[in-house]
Design brief:
- The complex is a heterodimer of chains A (360) and B (475).
- Chain A has 360 residues and is an alpha/beta fold.
- Chain A has two domains: 65 residues, no CATH class; 239 residues, SGNH hydrolase (Rossmann fold, 3-Layer(aba) Sandwich).
- Chain A is built from ten helices and eleven strands.
- In chain A, the strands form four sheets. A five-stranded parallel sheet of chain A has the order 3-2-4-7-8.
- In chain A, helix 8 links the parallel strand 7 and strand 8.
- In chain A, helix 2 packs antiparallel against helix 3 and helix 5 crosses helix 9.
- Chain A is globular and about 70 Å long.
- In chain A, 46% of the residues are buried.
- The C terminus of chain A is likely disordered.
- Chain B is built from 19 helices and no strands.
- The mean pLDDT of chain B is 90.
- The chains are: A alpha/beta (360), B mainly alpha (475).
Chain lengths: 360, 475
């Protein structure tokens, strides 16, 4: 085929793919970080999608998506974030199991995609923990859930493996890459947590967020960039909301893992600010424990260091190539710290105490 | 810049037009292709471009000096220059790929003395193993008088050519240089073959590889202790298919993209899972690497010319280094050792068997099935070490496979079907695929384009969100 016609065939292929896939292309554009790139993408794909939709060309993909059981709902827009100062200060409700519809007046920003019923802080009881620590045994193991953004992948895998080695902790890992608390339109952790709690009712929840959160947020009052006053207020409200949601059941322990120190100074400064928010919000809650991971992955001077002493006593590389994510030995180190922390709150009668060391 | 992205699509559209418009003019075409390739590579990290540029310059210099030494009649000097070139390339690879690994080993073995060696966090440049191997073959082939030295611009285009830059196939200068000198016919772009390869590659990568990774492989390999024997076993099978789909998918796209630009790259995979021996497997798997190792390592080591024991030593050594080529970890060494050891055992056993039992004792079909089962499972066994992050995780995988108690929710019907279908695809006659391609080639350009467009959407629909990097990028 002549090169000119080959080019024509390629353009036809792109045109066909673009029109049949216009719905998805617009969705992808919508999920980009707020800024010029997203605006340009939307300016391109919105009219294309309108045109393809008018011709019925997006219908085949929707049919296939539905057949595959995928969510094909239209709404991904953030609908609420207005009354931040009052959302989480209302008096405790009557029962921790009560659920309410999320709407713009009573919650942090939640996408309408996630308008499933979720427990809110307004229904969470004030916790008082004077009970005897729960004893985990083989017959009655402790149910642990670990999850969050991509930072929880490697460390979560280590935690699941090391928890299994104790034989008294059953752990589930549930990480979602590229997610966080700033973009519920991308992945709605609030509604997901509601599902996790209602289906599994874990006794310990270990979460890590933040690595993807230093990006713009769209509120009803506009789009705010990271660490603007409005942004900080909204993000803090979301952290508060999530902590309340997770700790609504007073028997549940929530371990909020802070972001480790990062190689990139600029990125690290952002993570430090987020860590400060997590720590401050956890400080007021008895069943939410903040784990500061910065000392764990810093050298004696408190600076970023990839090579540190691993659990086996050898100096090893704790980080992946990007200087952000943890390597396997780094994940093991953090998981070990989390297990230690759990041991302070739960009587983990390990059947084989040496198993944890072996597993690591 | 990953192949299955909008960025690459736009990049390639521009490069495609520039390629065919500029092709009749040698220098502008070369400058444009070099610039495009460096832009493609710099998309990951612009600092890597400096490294690639340095490699181009140094290897051109070495190649030129080897040729000059030959012209001056000094074979000894040429040999020295070749050794320097190989040393420089291995040093580059050693620093960027193996420094951390060897430093960790040294420090843990030599205590206080070991601590004198500084630990430095080094970012591994994408595709360094591929372009370094190509660079070495360029200088060695000049020394062997297989090729003439190329101009600096040609070496630049050769080493940086974007379709194969980051994950192969490993194209030798003797295969690339002649294509640089000829001008392909712009009226005969093999679109049917190229589109078929690109679609097949996208499907294998985006749909098959990603599905298997997310459905079972990642979870089971990273936390084997919490899974049942059937899940462990099927995770191993799934990984065998995943890495094949991922790597052969990439090379299919690379070969297809190169075809659209008028270049024909060597085949890199030939239905490897239909092999009836490990020797055959290595004739079908990552063929450009196995041929490279044969020609530049196994044969220079002596090959099979210095007796039986030396042959076994050379086989094992070649595969050990082949394993280490993939990554700086003991698991890759073990993977290479398994393949090298089995290759040696196959030679011993098949030779002795043929002498003692000249006539087959089993029907051909039965022996074929048994040999296939043996080969596939040896390959799968070795993959456990290749994929597992640590030796302990690999042994946990192996130890747990025998335990068939407990449920196996990850072993679904769709998973078993996917693995089975991919294995069955290895036995599809190439003539059948060729016939389909000829049929497709008879379609008009509009119909071909529309079919490719529908195919792209199909891949997008069936694939999960986001595209994971290709497995072989890390090598």
């Amino acid at each position: 085929m002549p090169a000119g016609k080959a080019l024509g065939a390629g353009l036809v292929a792109l045109l066909v793919a673009m029109l049949l896939n216009a719905d998805q292309l617009e969705n992808d554009a919508r999920r980009k970080p707020f800024g010029n790139g997203r605006d340009v993408s939307l300016a391109i794909w919105e009219p294309v999608n309108d045109f393809a939709g008018a011709l019925g060309l997006t219908a085949p993909r929707r049919v296939v998506d539905e057949a595959l059981g995928r969510d094909v709902s239209e709404g991904t827009e953030v609908v609420a974030a207005s009354s931040l100062d009052t959302s989480f200060t209302t008096a405790p409700g009557s029962s921790p199991s009560t659920t309410v519809d999320v709407d713009g007046d009573t919650s942090a920003a939640i996408s309408d995609q996630g308008s499933a019923e979720v427990p809110t802080s307004s229904t969470a009881p004030t916790t008082t923990t004077t009970e005897t620590p729960r004893s985990a045994t083989v017959a009655d193991p402790l149910h642990l859930w670990v999850g969050g953004d991509s930072m929880s992948q490697v460390f979560g895998e280590s935690l699941v493996r090391m928890a299994a080695a104790t034989e008294v902790i059953e752990a589930d890992l549930d990480y979602r890459i590229s997610t966080g608390l700033t973009r519920p339109d991308y992945f709605n952790w609030t509604s997901h947590f509601a599902d996790v709690i209602s289906s599994g009712d874990p006794e310990v929840m270990v979460v890590i967020f933040g690595a993807n959160d230093a990006q713009g947020m769209e509120l009803t009052t506009g789009v705010f960039q990271p660490f603007d006053d409005e942004w900080v207020a909204e993000y803090t409200a979301r952290v508060r909301f999530t902590m309340d949601q997770l700790s609504a059941d007073s028997s549940r322990l929530v371990i909020w893992v802070g972001q480790p120190i990062m190689r990139s100074a600029g990125f690290d400064a952002k993570m430090l600010r987020l860590d400060e928010i997590y720590e401050a919000e956890a400080a007021g809650r008895e069943r939410v424990v903040y784990l500061d991971t910065r000392p764990l992955f810093a050298n004696s001077a408190g600076d970023y260091e990839a090579y540190l002493t691993a659990l086996d006593g050898q100096v090893r590389n704790m980080r992946q190539q990007d200087g952000t994510h943890l390597s396997r030995v780094g994940g093991d180190l953090l998981a070990d710290a989390v297990l230690d922390l759990i041991g302070q709150y739960v009587d983990v009668q390990t059947v084989r105490p040496e198993a944890v060391v072996e597993a690591s | 810049m990953l192949f299955p992205t909008l960025e690459f699509t736009l990049f390639f559209l521009i490069v495609f037009v520039a390629n065919w418009l500029l092709r009749p003019q040698d220098v502008p075409w070369r400058v444009a292709m070099l610039g495009a390739s460096l832009f493609f590579y710099g998309w990951w990290n612009w600092k890597f471009v400096l490294l690639l540029g340095g490699s181009i310059l140094v290897n051109w210099y070495f190649g030129d000096h080897v040729a000059r030494a030959h012209t001056a009649g000094s074979t000894a000097r040429a040999g020295l220059v070749v050794k320097a070139a190989v040393g420089a390339n291995l040093l580059l690879l050693g620093v960027f790929k193996y420094y951390g690994f060897f430093t960790e080993q040294f420090r843990s073995s030599f205590g206080v003395v070991g601590e004198l060696v500084p630990l430095v966090e080094i970012t591994l440049p994408v595709g360094i193993s591929f372009f370094t191997f190509q660079a070495m073959s360029y200088v060695i082939d000049i020394h062997r008088r297989h090729i003439e030295p190329m101009s600096l611009l040609d070496v630049g285009v050769y080493l940086s050519f974007f379709p194969q830059l980051v994950a192969g196939p490993i194209v030798r200068a003797s295969e690339f240089a002649p294509q640089l000198r000829t001008h392909p016919d712009p009226r005969a772009v093999p679109t049917a073959e190229a589109f078929r390869l690109i679609f097949a590659g996208l499907f294998k990568k985006v749909v098959i590889s990603t599905y298997l990774a997310s459905e079972i492989v990642d979870e089971v390999f990273n936390v084997p202790d919490t899974h049942s024997g059937p899940e462990l076993l099927f995770a191993v099978y799934a990984y065998a298919i995943q890495i094949y789909a991922d790597f052969s998918g990439y090379t299919d796209i690379a070969i297809g993209v190169a075809l659209l630009m008028g270049f024909r790259f060597p085949q890199n995979f030939d239905a490897p899972y239909r092999s009836l021996s490990i020797q055959e497997f290595w004739r079908r798997w990552h063929m450009t690497l196995s041929n490279w190792l044969r020609d530049y390592l196994y044969i220079p080591l002596g090959g099979n010319r210095r007796g039986t024991l030396f042959t076994y030593r050379n086989l094992i050594l070649t595969m050990l280094l082949g394993g280490l080529w993939h990554g700086a970890a003991w698991n890759f060494v073990i993977w290479g050792a398994i393949h090298g050891g089995v290759l040696a055992v196959e030679r011993i056993v098949s030779g002795a068997w043929r002498r003692r039992v000249p006539d087959p004792i089993l029907p051909t079909a039965v022996s074929g099935v048994l040999r296939w089962l043996y080969t596939f499972h040896v390959v799968c066994f070795a993959w456990i070490f290749f994929r597992a992050e640590t030796f302990d995780l690999a042994t946990s995988m192996i130890g747990g496979i025998a335990d068939w108690s407990g449920s196996s929710p990850l072993v679904t019907g769709l998973l078993v079907f996917t693995i089975g279908a991919m294995l069955a695809s290895q036995f599809v006659p190439t003539g059948f695929i060729g016939k389909l391609q000829v049929e497709f080639g008879a379609w008009s350009w509009v119909a071909q384009g529309a079919a490719l467009g529908v195919g792209i959407v199909l891949v997008d629909v069936l694939g999960p969100e986001g595209v994971a990097p290709f497995i072989y990028f890390q090598f």
